Protein 1
Amino acid sequence: MVTILLIGIFFLTLAWQLMKTICTYRQKHQQLILAEKQLQNYASQMGYFTVIEETNHNLLDFYHKLGHSIAALHIQLEVAQKLWQINPTQAEKSVSEAYQVSSALMYEVRQLVRTMGQDSLNKHANEEKRDFLARTKLEEERYVYF
């Protein structure tokens, strides 16, 4: 009788230890899921900031080009103004060149605005797709047990 009681206590202790271990593993699993969500959130934010940084870099390059083009346009118009009375033919040529520079500049601005609009739409669609895939993967992994 004492042997059966000792065996019973042994199995109850073993079952209790097993339940404790299972609870600990479940808590760790939940912590891992939470950490994974946080990492995905951080990765998403990092991607967003990378896109912003790249856009800022592209805009800075464009502003430099824009500044140089405006300076060239200004010089051409100054030359035309000073030559207008001395050499009207040369002044007309300078105005023609200024017109070409301004046309090219307007074209570049339009292209940039169009590209930025398309990038914004593509970025939004890609973010939605990535978020959907991440949520689906999390839902699938949530039901995996140890």
Protein 2
Amino acid sequence: MTFNLSPQKSLQIFRIIFPLFLMIHGLFRLISGGVEGFGIFLESNHFVAGSVIAWSLTIIEIVGSILIILGYFAKWLCLLFICEIIMGILLVHAVNGWFVVGGGSGGVEYSLLLVLGYFLIALSNPKPLLKFGG
């Protein structure tokens, strides 16, 4: 049995599955009560209105991921997520080296993989899965 997908279908599947990782990240922060702690962390790193930023990022991670899955504003949301992840690398992960586990702990490798995935989705110029009106 052979299983072949066109590059376009493969990218579409990737675009549907990949944003779930960041959506789960935002949902966990919301459900676990971690939004306020995130805001405090941001303020301790000299961000003004850390709580507002934390709530905004959490909501955007959830809603934005759904929009990417559906193909709406995907390029812009991917670019926003790339910026967010790069800030996470600079503020948290870079000091921990490369490895997330194994050769180290909490490093940049997973975050860079996320950046690469969102860059790929942004470059693929996804079309909406659902069309409304006309």
Protein 3
Amino acid sequence: MITNLWWVANGTLLGLGLVLTVAGFVGTTAPKKPLPWQRERGTVARRFAAQRRILLGLAVRLRS
């Protein structure tokens, strides 16, 4: 009984591995989209980078 389950599990994993390997090589037709945090991160990072430049300029000016 357990050996039958063992062979079924191995066969399932082997089949899934083959399907994923073929899909990895062939690819899909879906367009690549940026991940949710990558899209948001770019705009937020640019905004904070601009604020840092302004604050750094003010700090240098006030210090001298």
Protein 4
Amino acid sequence: MALTGAARVWVWVTAVVTGLAAVGLGLVAVLADLDTAGKAASVAGAVVGLAALLVSIIALLRTGGSGAGSGGGRTVRTGRGGVAAGGNITGSAIGKNSKVTGPRTRPGTAPAPREGDDVRAGRDGVATGGDITDSAVGEDSER
């Protein structure tokens, strides 16, 4: 995954600050006593832990809590007994007791995929995030 300009700057800032902190803690351990170095390391660890918590909360809020990355992908969800598909469906049987009885569907031109559409089927529902072509959809359906 390529970094944007702002992300690259933050990576470098984090690397420089981390390097300086490591050098500073090393100097405290060498120049001061171990008790002081232990206290400084404890404070630094607490600060780093809080910073990590802040970054993880920001990342969670930016993705909407879905766990999805920033790729703008599609979320597919279904309730109990539901059927959901996140893309285009051609020549398929979807749903309880559905069946395909006719000849195989000839491949055609697939529609351009769309990004970011959420697909949700409620309880015992059927939903798709794309085009349904030449398919049996729903209970006891036949193509």
